[in-house]
Design brief:
Helix content is 4%, strand content 39%. With 496 residues, it is mostly beta strands. Among the domains are: 107 residues; 97 residues, no CATH class. The strands form five sheets. It has a 22-stranded parallel sheet that branches. It is rod-shaped and about 120 Å long. The N terminus is likely disordered.
């Protein structure tokens, strides 16, 4: 048995040795070649240096061919020169964490006077005596760059360009200038620039500014100039700028922005614009100032020096709150529609509208002027108008005023000097006068009035209505008691 086992072990060992034997040790025929990657394969990009990108009389370095480039050291500015001139299209420049540091009398930090499809990323550009980054090439990208202390714009780009995740602050000119249409500014910080945070030059239409902070700039936070229509400003802050927080032209959108403490108006928009979900507080002028055909919804407007919202004709304001503004809570022109809004403690009227407007389902309380002040041919429906320092609801000719509750307004709860209006199913209580009508030809029906000091109804001759004073009834328990007789006039106006 022992001999058999020994034989098996020897055989297995021999087999293992056979499997693990070395390969062929002789080198292959022919010359020996390297097996490592060459330098181009390891770093296929081109370093910016005197050898690869030699300068000239106008630039410290010049990139003259398409390709990918990167810095290997800081770039020091020179008097009368730009730092890096890009004289080709389809160039990618990685600043690689390094800085371009300008001096007095230098030109742009990075300049590309023409071409297209340039990308600059990842570094710092500071103290150039012109612009920090100046790209007239379209379809360019600037991202993750800090630009500061430049004498003109921090970042200047052209058509269809993107500026993303940059900080362009403390420049003497604009933080970012968009000199073309269809640009995007996203996730940027623009603080303390001498002019605007971001500006669209003439014709820079359909640009989008998103998730960007444009604060404490010497003029506007965000501005579009003549022809720069159709802007979208989304999720931005524009606080404590010397002039307006956000000013854009026709057909713009301002959505979910914080706009506080600016030197004139908070948000100013052109005709056909849309403002939604914004908080607009403590601006020296109006909170939101708009042109024709503007829509404002779901905004908060507090402690602005002017009106909370001031807009011209054919505009809509819905589900907004305006309180403690120096002027009116809401001041709109003709053909306006105000619905579901609240106006409290404002220095003027709670809500002001002009000809052929609609005010519905609003509350206007404790304003220093009238609760709702309307012109002719208006409809005022289903509103609460309470404790205003002048009158509750004031309106003129050819109007419908129905289902409103007016209580405790200091002078007259409901006042008209006009003709041919219908005043129906309102409740007016605890003012000096309940409903006062000084014009003729008006119809009053189903209104109720109580507790007004001078008169529940003060209506001149020549108007239409039935008036019934109710006497208090006895106690009611179940279905018995109350007034001895019920007035058999469903259209009567009741005093109680």
């Amino acid at each position: 048995m022992n001999l058999c086992r020994l034989t098996v072990v020897v055989a297995c060992a021999a087999s293992a040795v056979s499997v693990c034997s070395a390969g062929v040790l002789a080198p292959p025929a022919g010359p020996v070649t390297p097996t490592m990657k060459d330098l181009v394969e390891v770093e296929p990009r081109n370093a910016v240096n005197a050898t690869n990108t030699p300068g000239n009389a106008a630039a410290t370095f010049v990139i003259s061919q398409p390709g990918s480039y990167y810095l290997v050291a800081n770039v020091a500015g020179e008097v009368g020169k730009v730092g890096i001139e890009i004289a080709a299209s389809n160039v990618s420049l990685d600043l690689n964490g390094f800085a371009l540091e300008g001096v007095a009398g230098s030109g742009d930090g990075i300049s590309q006077p023409g071409g297209a499809n340039t990308t600059i990323r990842n570094g710092t550009v500071s103290n150039w005596d012109a612009r920090g980054i100046y790209l007239l090439s379209g379809n360019s990208i600037v991202e993750q760059v800090v630009v500061t202390g430049c004498s003109n714009a921090g970042i200047y780009v052209s058509d269809a360009s993107i500026v993303r995740d940059c900080d362009s602050s403390g420049n003497i000119g604009n933080g970012i200038t968009l000199d073309g249409r269809d640009c995007l500014v996203s996730g940027c910080t623009l603080l303390g620039n001498g002019n605007n945070g971001v500006v669209g030059n003439f014709g820079a239409a359909n640009c989008r500014i998103e998730n960007t902070a444009a604060n404490s700039n010497g003029s506007r936070g965000i501005l579009s100039l003549l022809g720069s229509v159709g802007w979208r400003v989304v999720g931005c802050t524009a606080n404590e700028n010397v002039d307006k927080g956000i000013e854009i032209l026709e057909n713009g959108h301002v959505i979910d922005c914080q706009v506080n403490g600016n030197g004139t108006n908070g948000i100013q928009v052109g005709s056909g614009s849309f403002v939604s979900g914004c908080v607009v507080n403590e601006n020296v002028g109006n909170g939101i100032d708009g042109q024709f055909n503007t829509q404002v919804m779901d905004c908060q407007l507090v402690l602005n020096g002017g009106s909370g919202v001031q807009i011209l004709d054919r505009s809509v304001v819905s589900r907004c709150a305006a309180y403690s503004n120096g002027g009116d809570g809401f001041a709109l022109g003709r053909f306006a529609n105000v619905r579901g809004c609240g106006a409290w403690d404002n220095g003027g009227n709670g809500i002001t509208v002009l000809f052929a407007s609609l005010v519905t389902h609003c509350q206007s309380a404790q304003n220093l002027g009238n609760g709702i002040d309307a012109f002719a041919s208006v409809a005022i429906l289903d509103c609460d108008v309470i404790d205003n320092k002048l009158n509750g609801i004031v309106f003129d000719v050819d109007s419908l005023v129905k289902n409103n509750n007016c209580d405790g307004n200091d002078l007259v709860n409901m006042l008209t000097s006009g003709v041919d209006s219908r005043i129906e199913a309102n409740n007016v209580t605890d003012g000096q006068r309940g409903i006062q009508v000084t014009g003729t030809g008006n119809l009053l029906a189903r209104n109720t009035a109580s507790g007004n000091v001078v008169a529940n109804f003060d209506v001149v001759a020549g108007n239409y209505g039935i008036y019934i004073p109710l006497a208090p009834g006895g106690a009611v328990f179940g279905s018995a008691g109350g007034a001895p007789t019920a007035p058999n006039e469903p259209w009567a106006n009741l005093s109680y």
